[in-house]
Write a structure and sequence with these properties.
With 209 residues, the chain is an all-alpha fold. It folds into two domains: 126 residues, Serine Threonine Protein Phosphatase 5, Tetratricopeptide repeat (Alpha Horseshoe), CATH 1.25.40; 57 residues, Serine Threonine Protein Phosphatase 5, Tetratricopeptide repeat (Alpha Horseshoe), CATH 1.25.40. The chain is 80% helix and 0% strand. It is built from ten helices and no strands. Helix 4 runs parallel beside helix 6 and helix 9 runs antiparallel to helix 10.
Amino acid sequence: MKILIDPFLIISLCLTPVMITLNPQPSWAQRESIETTIQQLSEQAKTQTEQRQSEKAIETWQRILELALQYDKKSLQAFALVGLGLNYQELKQPSKALEYYQEALPIAQQAGDRRVVGAALNNIGAAYQNLGQYQQALDYYERALPITQEVDQLADIAKNLNNIGEIHSLNGQKGNALQYYQEALFIAQKSGDPLLEQEIRNNIAEIGN
């Protein structure tokens, strides 16, 4: 079985220009320079994370985090913290990943960024699952689900449902697991993500083994 964490921020940071508010008010040229720097760092972090260059990615996310703190940009700060968590999870350090996800969650809530909140909750669940703390994992997955449904990002919903199914499978509740997997598969098919669809099919196949 495979836990599906939510790396949405990797794409979001690179497709959406990052607007920041500085105090005192900078010149137009200064704003353009800072935004360009953040965008370039975000592209670099995206590539490093996708290529599983986790140590390098962590350095880049740390630089983004420093800029977010310097200019008091809460949403960017939450993005960076989740990015750090993703890479520590890739390095098989779920406790460290959990620390970053838990730090990101209240900041994302304060910023009002519901998609980051949903991702942080789902990824906290994944970290707890990796630590073998299945009830805590299920609690966070279930907290994430209505938020991901509200935001209506199909791939995120499918990942969330898949992860709930995994906990039921690990707890020996095969019927419940299959129900969540099948719902996840249906949504994954609608999302147009063939890799996600295949990962969920693999989980369904394991139920019958």
